[in-house]
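Quick one: structure for this chain?
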Amino acid sequence: MEQSKIEKYGNELYDSLKACKVIEPLTSREADITIEDAYAIQDVLIKKRMNDDGSKIIGKKIGVTSQVVMDMLGVDQPDFGYLLSDMIYSDGDEIDVSNTMIQPKAEGEIAFVLKEDLMGPGVTTADVLRATKFVMPCFEIVDSRIKDWKIKIQDTVADNASCGYMVFGGQYVDPRDVDLTTCGITLERNGELLHTGAGAAALGSPVNAVAWLANKLGEFGVGLKAGEVILSGALCAMVTIEPGDNMTINIGGIGSASCRFV
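Got it. Here's what it folds into:
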């Protein structure tokens, strides 16, 4: 794709984010768009958020980690996006989705906080465990700037892996003190249990997902850095959010996170 189009779509996604207005899928306008093109568009979007809004990169996220979503998007691997400093909320916070988001959904996952750098290729699960300071429960509030969530993998990659906000729980544990493969998750909305899942939903284990991310980013000459937060992928189905909803996740052996939407 020509650089002029890459710049155009990156700026269009930024404008959509700021105005809370959807755009038509990029894949419906560019039949030949590749995943590499989409990551180049994502790069334009991220740099614009950093330059224009003063945002800073504080971590990375993995998306499309479940086989169901891979099948839906017609791909055989996850994707990634960047976490920015203006995306963070704490346990129990109130989040204004009415004025800052377009079509939000919530999913529960495990966040890794690193104490050492990880640079692919060749990163193993043992490397991930050694480099992790702690893990904690996390809500990821995803959003899509693409109309009606009619996305293909190129659309969500360009849209920074559909990033929105993060809500971190107040508890954290050493990843070697909990079985991250079998740990269960429950997701409740307004006191009603909606979904359950387990760590194995994220590429067989959240540790596998982080190793994949380190190795994939290594192809771009990018590493995972000490102090960064890494979101390892959803452990159960996404839930649509409406103003007034209260949501809670509990992850066995790790803790809980909750938030309210207005």
